[in-house]
Specification:
The chain is an alpha+beta fold. Helix content is 40%, strand content 25%. The protein has 2 helices and 3 strands; from the N terminus they run H-E-H-E-E. Strands 2-1-3 form a 3-stranded mixed beta sheet, with helices on one face. Strand 1, helix 2 and strand 2 form a beta-alpha-beta unit.
C-alpha cells in the first residue's frame, strides 16, 4: 500500500540522514508524488504526518499519471539541511 511504502521510505531516509550526520529533524521539504491521489492521499498523508508532524517541513502532495516503473504507487523526494 502507499502508506506502508511511505513508512518504509521514511525509515530509509532516516537511516541515510544518520549516515550523513543528520536526522529526520533536518528535513526542510518533502514532495510526494501519488499515482492514485484520490485513493492514497488520506493514508499516505496520515503516515507522513506521523513521521514529520513535529518537524513540519514544507510539503507538497502531487497527483501524477504514472512513474518510471509501472508498479510504483508513489515517489517521495526529501530535502534536508544538515548543519556542520
Amino acid at each position: 500500500s502507499g502508506a506502508a511504502s511511505v513508512a518504509q521510505i521514511s525509515s530509509q531516509v532516516g537511516a541515510a540522514l544518520e549516515q550523513a550526520g543528520g536526522s529526520l529533524a533536518d528535513v526542510v521539504r518533502t514532495r510526494v508524488f501519488l499515482v492514485d491521489i484520490e485513493r492514497d492521499f488520506d493514508a499516505v498523508g496520515a503516515v507522513h504526518g506521523e513521521v514529520f508532524g513535529e518537524i513540519r517541513p514544507a510539503c507538497a502532495f502531487i497527483g501524477t499519471a504514472g512513474l518510471v516503473a509501472k508498479d510504483l504507487l508513489l515517489e517521495v523526494e526529501v530535502d534536508a539541511v544538515i548543519s556542520a
